[in-house]
Amino acid sequence: MSISTHVLDAVTGRPAVGLELALGQLAPGQRVRDGWHELARRATDADGRVTDLAGDVEAGVYRIVFETEAYLKVETFYPEVVLVFRVVDPAARYHVPLLLSPFAYSTYRGS
User: Fold this and answer.
1) What's the pLDDT tens digit per position in 29-47?
2) b/e per residue 10-21 (b: at least 16 CB within 10 A)
3) Which helix (H) or strand (E) segment is 72 a member of?
4) Helix (H/G/I), strand (E/B), else coil: 76
């Protein structure tokens, strides 16, 4: 199983290069608001991707925190974007794309 992401900057129409992000896992039995363990911290590459965010992880709840305001270098409505998702099949690939602008974002489960 693997977790990856791809971030596109909707303002420029280009990949979001150098955007810092962190992957966390919710500890078993903990609530979403306070039981996170950071697994990885990366920055997007020249194509706006992080292909090696996590490999060989188990079923559970994960989150990716995207440091959007630091990347956009302007005051934004969303200073960070936090995406929480569930891994059900540890053998599957989980791709979590993000389309970003200072006042909006969208995401979906990619392939």
Assistant:
1) 777 777 899 999 999 999 9
2) beeeebbbebeb
3) helix 68-72
4) coil
What's the rounded Cα separation, in Å, for the pair 73 and 61?
30
- The pLDDT value recorded for residue 1 is 72
Cα gap 27→30, rounded to integer Å: 6
Contacts of 36 (CB under 8 A, 6+ apart): 24, 25, 26, 27, 30, 63
Q: Is this model's pTM higher than 0.85 or not?
A: yes
Q: Tell me, what CATH number does 56's domain have?
A: 2.60.40.180
Tokens coding 66: 């995207």
Report the number of distinct structural domains present in the chain.
Answer: 1
